[in-house]
Amino acid sequence: MPDGQSPPPLTDVFGRTVSYLRLSVTDRCDLRCTYCMAEHMTFLPKKDLLSLEELETVAAAFIRRGVRKIRITGGEPLVRKDIGDLFDRLGRHMGEGLDELTLTTNATLLAQHAERLYAAGVRRVNVSLDTLDPVMFKTITRLGDLQKSLDGIEAARQAGLKVKINTVALKHQNAAEIPAMVEWAHAQGFDMTLIEVMPLGLTGEDRVDQYVPLFEIRDQLADRWNLTDEEGRDAQAGPSRYVRIAETGGRLGFITPLTNNFCAGCNRVRVTCTGRIYMCLGQDDHVDLRAALRDAEHPALALDEALDTALMRKPEKHEFAIRERGEAPALPRHMSMTGG
Ligand code: SAM
Ligand code: SF4
Fold first, then answer.
1. How far is the CA of 125 from the centre of ligand 1 (A)?
2. Is the entire prediction scored with pTM above 0.90?
3. CA of 203, closest atom in ligand 1
4. Is any ligand 2 atom within 6 A of the Cβ of residue 34?
5. CA dist., res. 197 & res. 80, Å (int)
6. Cα(97) to centroid of ligand 2, in Å?
7. Which of 27, 87, 140, 157 is least surrounded, with the fewest CB atoms within 10 Å of its CB?
8. Alpha carbon nearest to ligand 1 atom 25, residue
9. At what angle do helices 110-120 and 146-159 cross, to 10 degrees?
10. Ligand nearest the Cα atom of residue 74
């Protein structure tokens, strides 16, 4: 590339530009949520994971190509031992191409990390929380302690982080509790987003017993409250469609991968902790960035080429369905591999 020219943005064949990277730093987790993982999981050997330096090199390559937002995810990102150092490193890119550094977490370890995250430049966190009932929390997460996650959320707030609650709607487990959760989240001043369960990986439960289409939940909420669709650029960005609820005063998002496809506006790609770039959560095609990092004579050049290859293969859309009992997952890969 001639001097003085900025590298080309990451634009795919459908004209969508990628400005958002979700970077997974581990496939491990201290919970085993029944919609995400099986009870007994085999995790990757540590040597297969990208090192801190490699993760930063990957992030920097994306930033050079116009990525402005990075979300750290997993597995549970905060179980990775050197995670604080990674945030310190990535935080140095804030204002130098990067507008936002954030993470998605189950909050079990957030109390330990909240202040350092803030110091590194993180301002917002997404916390996954599917119930406020301690017994149901244990049932859904198999291993969790609700109070630990609530303490993590409170610590985040104390540290100055803005919290958004993500809740996967589960037919027999939390669907009836969702209005109470919305009330709680909005009373705390938190935005909240509901997510339809996606058929990714075998978890030991039938997806038919988990899946509830979000239009049903929305209808229930609309019977009780006044919901107004949010308009404007912010409300249309990303997969979430937001409403404002007059009575609670808060925002509620709906992510509907099964009932309402949002891929036309997709601006993101995902990189796993082993350096695979997945261009779509709902497809198996991927490009190996680790080979470019570890084997190439000129890693920066090889990374750039790998990103170009990946972008050319970004598919138009995902196609998920949960039709009948006993159906195989859409993909064998668990959500914890690609980081949600
Ligand atoms: N451990 C962190 C957490 O739970 O927030 C980050 C990783 S987790 C895989 C990212 C998000 O994916 C969480 O909000 C989780 O609820 C969601 N998720 C996991 N499996 C899912 C599935 N099968 N369908 C829909 N969402 C899922
Ligand atoms: Fe762990 Fe997050 Fe998956 Fe739950 S959703 S098992 S917290 S990675």
1. 14
2. yes
3. 23
4. no
5. 26
6. 30
7. 157
8. 197
9. 20
10. 1
CA-based end-to-end distance of the chain: 34
- pLDDT, averaged per 10 consecutive residues of the chain (340 residues), comes to 73 93 97 95 93 96 96 97 97 97 98 98 98 98 97 98 98 97 98 94 88 96 96 69 96 91 87 94 90 88 94 86 82 81
Residue 11 β-bridge partners = 17
Cα dihedral 269, 280, 313, 293 sign:
positive
Distance (angstroms) between ligand 1 centre and the Cα of 311 equals 24
Which residues lie below 8 Å from residue 223, measured CB to CB, with a gap of 6+? none
Domain boundaries, the chain: 20-338
* 3-state secondary structure string across the chain: CCCCCCCCCCECCCCCECCEEEEECCCCCCCCCCCCCCCCCCCCCHHHCCCHHHHHHHHHHHHHCCCCEEEEECCCHHHCCCHHHHHHHHHCCECCCECEEEEEECCCCHHHHHHHHHHHCCCEEEEECCCCCHHHHHHHHCCCCHHHHHHHHHHHHHHCCEEEEEEEECCCCCHHHHHHHHHHHHHCCCEEEEEECCCECCCCCCHHHCCCCHHHHHHHHHHHCCEEECCCHHHHCCCCEEEEECCCCCEEEEECCCCCCCHHHCCEEEECCCCEEECCCCCCCEEEHHHHHHHCCCHHHHHHHHHHHHHHCCCCCCCCCCCCCCCCCCECCCHHHHCC
Neighbours of 79 (CB within 10 A): 18
The phi and psi torsions of 306 (rounded to 5 degrees) equal -65, -40
With a 6 A CB cut-off, is 73 part of the ligand 1 pocket?
yes
Nearest CA to ligand 1 atom 11: 340
Class of domain 20-338: alpha beta
